[in-house]
Batch of 4 targets.
Target 1
Amino acid sequence: MRSTHHVVPPQSDPELGHYSDPPLLVLASLASGPKHGHAMIEDIDSISGTRLGPGTLYGAIARLEQQGWIEPLAPEDRRRPYRITSEGLRVLRAKLSTLAQVAQAGLKRLEPL
Amino acid sequence: MKPTRTRLLVRLYPRRWRERYGEEFEALLLDRDDGLREPINVAWSALTEHILPTYGGTMNQPVRTFGVVVRQPSAFFPIAMSLVALAIVLGHIALFGVAHEADEGAAAHLWQLLMAGQVPILAFFAIRWLPRAPRPTAWVLALQAGAALASMAPVLFFNL
């Protein structure tokens, strides 16, 4: 089997670590408190390096709201903040635990390479 | 982003989506920088919303019966085109009889145009309506297929 040791040098290109799962990123952003769209885009950029487009963001917001994982608050000067629901927190915790488990196992397997 | 541009971008979304998210989405776009990347993202998302709509939050899912679906232009145009094609074939047979000509003639070309022209409309109808209302859309597709087969039947039967 070929080793990936020389194929993908660690941290060689920030784009390689790009992660985009808009609903999960929105949930993670709202875990620190209610935010409106613009604040979510900036926060997601700062925590993951992923800059969501406005269309992608609202696609995720609509689906999360439909699932009852986030809920709208009263608008503030046309900007509507959203907050994560208790069900959303439960889902976020479960998804992040799985991700952490995968990341831990994956990084451990990369160690000898 | 400029107000005229944001209004135009929001207009790309389906009406029901705009009623629920339009105002706050426009406010978000006004906060964003001008450039090409974000308008492209919005246009793509609006197209996706037309094909696979979300019925989030307070948006009410509309009633989509057979009657509602069949009244869509992309539903009845192919049926009408097939029926016109059938009328052309039957009219040609009534006037000139079953004649096997070397040159296909205007009626044959018109029939071919009507049959081929409905294919993209049928594809659009299926892509747009099957995810929204699968059962009524399947009935309309069956009706469209029936009309197309009816217009093809005399051509195949008389080997025109």
Target 2
Amino acid sequence: MSTVESRSASTAPPATGPEVRRAPAKRPKDFDRPRFLKVYMGLFFLLLFAPIALVVLFSFNSSRSLQDFQGFSLRWYETFFETESLRDSLVASLQIALVTMLIATILGTMLAYGLVRARTRLSSSFNVLMLVPLVTPEIVAGVSALLLFTQIGLDLSLTTIILAHITFSISYVTVVVRARLASINREVEDAAMDLGATRFQTFRLVTLPALWPAVLAAGLLVFALSFDDFVLSFFTTGESPQPLPVRIWTQIRFGVRPTINAIGTFMLVVSVVTIGLALLLPRLLGRRESGLKVLLGREGA
Amino acid sequence: MSAINFEGVTKRFGEAVAVQRLDLAIEKGEFFSLLGPSGCGKTTTLRMVAGFEQPSEGHIYLDGEPVETVPPYKRNVNTVFQSYALFEHLSVEDNVAFGLKRRKVASDEISKRVAEALELVELRGRGKAKPRELSGGQKQRVALARALVNRPSVLLLDEPLGALDLKLRKQMQVELKGIQREVGITFLYVTHDQEEALAMSDRIAVMEDGEVKQCGSPEEIYEQPSGPFVAGFIGVSNLLSGVVQNGGVRLPSGQTCLADVPRECAAGSEVHLSVRPEKIWLDELEEGMASVEGTIVERVYVGTTTQVIVELAPGMRVTALEQNTARARSDDRWQIGDRVRLGWHREHARVLR
């Protein structure tokens, strides 16, 4: 406000001068930005984040109450990390997410490369088929995975969860990597071959360096998705150790305890950090584009 | 032994024929251009030499050796791409060194040759830069250095100047020709820009619909076009359709021009008469010239010359170029609506079927 005042004071015409029509001191607001939008946005984010904020807040509560906050304490985190079964579940979840990320990223990248670069009559139908796992209701995917595993006589364990997670994760990787790959000029690969690089060298020395922000972002996205997946894990999990989300669900059946808040907060942090890395790493490592653009397929082309 | 030999090379993509029974021999050290409109098969021809496409029929020989079974990365040719196709994540130096590293050249030899190549394209001191920090012209030079540093037996250039602005393009044409003379490598140059081809080439093959219409030196192609397509595509040409009649061509306007009619054009057959605008005289004609009469309908002043457009009959127009020299300024010589006589020496008119 002070700048507006000082400016209008300095531009005021001298009292003795002729009458000059002055521009209004206050400029009108842009017509396309009505003020109520800010209120609307505020409400939107309040609704979105308030429940999460409550979970985070009550995970630090010193009492058992889930209604009133009585003081700061880390006791629920202590319980979480000291309970062996919970710790095992956390480790299991991290293992699942890590293995899923590695395998799904490799397979998904290969699929994307094949779909974009191999010019076959089949690739257009594969392009559509590949999207099926993204739109299949997860419960259907879970039930069918369970049926498949029992039919072929595979004991339910971490392996079955990982297999189920990989199945749906490949599509995410492929969608992200394919968008990036399509934006890479094909002549660049031709140029590498022209200069004496074999197909594999071309992929390693030219394609992959241009592709890796997308590969990295896709991998971290898969990690986050796998880490907090419940439905698929629920259908394909063995007796023990169960992944963390399934473990929470089992515990809730016997009553809600504040430890849940601590676990929830911890999972939230893992997911947020993972997605944050996906967005920031490419930029931190000296690439111009951020992972957000890569994930949204908005760069290049 | 020729640097490149095409023997009956045909390339089909499904039903479409991109290149039709191509027979060409490109000599060592030659600056050879494939010239034609887009879709005439010139780039496909280039890609077949590079190894990115395989001929459907026929054979290609590089230095006398058939290359059908040789993959692109083993052929002794290098390409300069239209989009430059630089490796964005590598520095200029590493871009240029890419080919030498694949060929396992010793590292001190690599740095020596990279430095030489950058010197050749006048990019000394920009070796550490990344491609995105360079201008279009500089990128083009890096692409050129990256290909030349491998000392290929043939350098393939796919419209390398297409993305540059006019002034830079003209400058690069001169430089490219100079570099070619300096290194002595065979250049196979693809372009749709006839002026560019004329300015740089030792020989030109003009292509249309996958076929070579004419192959020869720039002078031959320009002065003695083999057919209406070449006459129209190279430079500006007045193409007048008419009928052969006792030692000349009778135009639809009723006038008859003297012309050297090739023996295979019988009297009464339909032909085109092709005359270059700069070969046409306006009034003050000399003895023995072929001539027609018409009305000036338009005059376009373009700096060094003035285009005078003359209508012989409705819908039948001829363009003549007048040099704006110190002596003659055509803008005060003729007015729109004036009747003029157009004339040319017989040897400057071509009768084309």
Target 3
Amino acid sequence: MTWVNAVIQGLLLGGQYALIACGLSLTFGVMRIVNLAHGDLAVCGAYLGLVLSAALGVPVWVTLPLLLPAAFAAGLLLQALLFGRALRHGVLAPVLVTFGLSVMIENLLQVAATSDPRGLNGGALALASFRIGSITVSWLFMTAFLTACAVLSGVQLLLSRTSWGRKVRATADDLDTARLVGIRVRPLFAVVSGIAIATAALAGVFIGTIGTFDPLAGSNTLIFAFEAVVIGGLGSLWGTLIGGMALGVTQVVVGQWNEAYAVLAVHLLFLAVLAVRPGGLFASHQVASEVAGAGALG
Amino acid sequence: MNQTTKPMDPAVTVSRWNHAATATTGASALGLLALVAVPYFAGGPAEQPLITLLTLVAMASLWNLLAGFSGLTSFGQHAYIGLGAYALYLAAAHGVNPFAGIALAAVAAAVISLPVSVLVLRLSGGYFAVATLVIAAVFQIVASLSQTVGGTTGVSVPGLAGYGPVLREALIYWATLAVAVASVAGVYLLVRRTFGLDARAVGSDPVAAAAAGVRVGRIRRLAYLVAAGGAGAVGALIALQTLYVEPTSVFNIQYSVYMLFMVLIGGMGTIEGPVLGALVLFGLQEALASYGAWYLVIVGGLAVAATLVASRGLWGLVSDRFGWSLLPVGYRVREHR
């Protein structure tokens, strides 16, 4: 029964990874930017939640109506100031710029908030749980998982069912042709970036409520999100959810056996997928070959 | 060297070498002699800062080979710095002379980077960058789980007790100088060969390079292996300098941040740029050491600004302004009047 429990907890944990990975997948899929500061932006979201919830004296959930628009605005701003400019400087520039941003954020957070680990005030939800048979499930984990599913399906529906989503997909497929047929790419990219950062901040709030975070937590967050994206298959949001769950289950099940090997096992799972199916388990062929890029050439 | 580019039209000469390059090579040789002699006339107080600077020079040149010439933005080079440090410890623990251990560390890092390259080179751009971070994380976890190398507490480097403090310091200085010179000169000689042209073609447009017959995979792999081997040697030096090897300090992402900064500030894809970038970072370290985390905020900010505003770095600004090329890697076509 402990193993069944581990699998269930792992699936729920995987939802959190998928939630962080959602924005990473979106910015890559649409703008071809791998945002190396994505994990740090999630951690920024957690710190913003900490500040707001302390200032207002309420659980962090109550601050979400303030926090998410702020994160969305930060996304618009970053797109206008950094990402958009970087895109005009060739293929290497976005990688270098977002890595530089990541270094800045991590150290600014250390200056502003010291390197002490923090946790967020999750209110009553943080302690509540329910039982299925002999398995105890935390409502907090369940909420995180359901939120991840809701956000991923929301983004997926937005992309596949709305006229805005059609424009995004057209731009992702062929930027120049999209411009030719009259799509205004800049505001489109700005909104995509806003959504990506807002989902990152939301994920950050869950990370901060479930565990603790510190200024340097962003790098690991990025790595896990990235592994979820690659394992699930690039360009497929459902794949990302499954990739996240594969990571979560691996981490918890191996952790059940020996805690010290849990994170290592996750990385090895990622490397194994990279060795066997570099495009991920559910990738569309086109996206997979773009990611491989020069790697696919002889 | 120039026979393949002999011009068809006699009104044009194609040349690579120039008077400035002769002067630079001559001055570098003299400078090198002076640097070799430092332990005899200046001793410890001059050696310490020079060791730091030369280590930075080696790291910058090697990362430039990877990112500047071959377009491989690896932010996980600290994987091989850590590996080199542990290789040096293991060699020294088995009775190998620690200074000979530097070469062993380089070889070990290059050998281990071969299977790693098979995995990470399946990706490119930002995905390659994050995959290299994963590799560094894996190495760090493996090191902290291995009790033979002291787990999370780490180990002290043995084998140096036989040297007096003055001699030990001088030997470490000379070893660092040797690695720095080998890195700069090695990268320079490597990119002057056909490899350099191929690597730059791969870095700027891999598809076009492949279409033109460049063996993209082989070029990327060679650049990755050389950079890993070099980082292994640097890691071994760091182990010798600190005399202690511990997972969190040798697998520190800060090394990769420094490499990025020096190459971006100095100028990607030139030989002079990374050396200049190392001087700038060294100056910043001295000036801002007391500001702690602010120092890295400035380093990150300058790297972002350099990418967006001056993508060819300080050396790019200088050489554009004055037309200088001290250590040319390309060719120049001149028309006769």
Target 4
Amino acid sequence: MEKTVTLAQGAGGKQTSELIEQIFAKYFNNPYLTADDAAVLPVPQGKMAMTTDGFIVSPSEFPGGNIGKLAVCGTVNDLSCMGARPLYLTCSFVLEEGFPMDKVDRAAEAMAKTAKEAGVHIVAGDTKVAGKGQVDGMFITTTGVGEITEGVKTGGALARPGDAVIVTGDVGRHGCAILLSRNEFQIEADVKSDCAPLWGTVKAVLDTVKDKTGSYKDLHVVRDATRGGVGTVLYEIAGQSSVGIHLQQDQVPVDPAVSGVCGMLGLEPLYLANEGRLVIFTPKENADAVLETLHGLPYSGNAAVIGEVTEENPGKVVMHTPIGGETLLPQPGGELLPRIC
Amino acid sequence: MKAAEQAAEIIRNYDGKKLRIMEVCGTHTHEIFRQGIRKMLPGNIQLISGPGCPVCVTPVGYIDEAVYLALEKGCTITTFGDLVRVPGSEKSLASARAEGAKVKPVYSPLDALEYAENHPEEQVVFLSVGFETTTPPSLMAVRQAKKEGLQNFSILTANKTMDNAYLALKDSADAFLYPGHVSTITGTKIYYDLMKEGISGVVTGFTGPELLTALAVIVKKSQEGKPFFMNCYPRVVTDEGSPSARKLAAEMTDPIDSEWRGIGIIPKSGIQLKEEYADYDARKKYDVPEMQGHANPACRCGSVLKGEITPQECRVFGKGCTPEHPIGACMVSGEGACAAFYKYGRDF
Amino acid sequence: MCVGLPAKVTEMKDGMAVVDATGAKRTVTAELLDDLQPGDYVMIHAGAAIAKISGDDQDETDEIMEALQ
């Protein structure tokens, strides 16, 4: 097969079949993925959740993952945050003519590996090739379907005063890793993207809440922090639930290297992207049990309570500073620019 | 936190007459907000933001010059990120970029030089703004460019020096928080000289405890009834400062009168590259026409910079003028007072 | 005016210092400082090391407050 993607591979003939067989089918092997026009699937029992997401990250490979892994995690995590066990994924690829085939191979391999870990089947796909310059490298769109666990109702408007605000790990790693791999600021740091599939984490937290309180009701909000970082999620929830959020600035876990990079560039870690972090709101009585569960799982070893929900300052995220001051976490917005003087 | 607690108590218990303290440095303005210090102050202590924001005090015409170089001369503009969205008379560099101009944010002037070395086909101009702290790397870049005989690198200067500005601000406050990092270059002699002129202040660091301590020192010493100066950042600022940085500036530049937005012309507060570096002075290299920029008439950045009004007292603050649609530099610069007040809200 | 970041010098090479700020590394010019050694702490700004840092802010502020009382 060619070393780089060719237009012929998108034409639907022999080269397309070759590409599908030698890369996609090789990795996505599962009983639902057939050569037929559509996958035939058993219908989920309870309510169904469905979501879709496009992935255009640049560079397509970065410390901690690649665009393939991201494409599976993003959609799996969206489903997970609805309390839905991810069942099936579709994926549609748009490849640029001339894009290195080994990168496509690595992306597909990562997708299969991540899908397996998440317990989700990739059941349908499509591949198109666009001419050089008509798309940047490799774009992937995934659509996912999951089965909502009965009794789970989480939502952005459900945060309540007295809730603990928990974040499942250190913040801003994915955004920082991408920034560093673009190498625009001559900074080197060992920062790996936090990209990870989180259904296992969500399920464990659901079970913990149910064991402790008899139902899932106490799990008020579960949201995955993505492009706008944890800070953006906090503002979304504060707005939707009309509550205030009061954070302890020194309780927010940040990797020291991420902190150093942010210090050099004048960035706020709470506003750098994540791809494997959840923000959880649950009454503070449940916080210890939830934390204990999180600390025993692979992607939440440094989960922490970072604050609580208050009645005061609705719609705002207030920060308590180490010297005993109180300040506002500035609202999200604006381009990612380094601040210098 | 022992010192921080003690300092906070001194500040909270101040019951003397109204004390106006000016934070000269834009980084101090932002850190004070970020640490939640404003809320800790009693009503009789007023913190005023000063002109220590190099982007803010640079006249509008400078942006016009940069846009001219980008669009008319096809130069690649390398710049600190802050400058990209500052409005010029007609457009910002961001708008110019949308029209096809090459605008590249960098962390250091030395990175801009490296970019020029790696892209000999591009005419690279670095927008050189900043105070005494930021000037040395710019000069080093020019010196290196000359050594290599680079034909495609130059700087557009708007660097300023603080020494003569303090006198212009003398009546704006009862005491000053002097800029911590500028002081690493200048040393402390200037502040002793100012004390003889009746101007009081302390050199201040940037951590929460350092800021609180500096404010506590001002609160205590201002009650002694005589001008004072204290270096409250001795772990970084020495009396001597950096003789090599000052030598570099003396060897490569001449002081010139410079316009500070809102304050007017302060004598010998700007710099110009000496004649032997003319090829690296973008104004000379590209024959940039003189540009008298004009600010939006609604803009009151000038008054804000002098501490005459607070950002909230500007009619367009938060209304026509926001970080997304700035009317003046104070709202868009990372060190701008209006940007800080907007970000942190009126309650904090 | 001057966003500065404390960093530790890990290597010196031809007047340049490789510095590490809790894991974020960069090369900066050391020209403005004499006698910089690996292990020294410096304040960095715009690609230059502008000053040596002689201690932490706790000791510094404790001393200032003591002198003030």
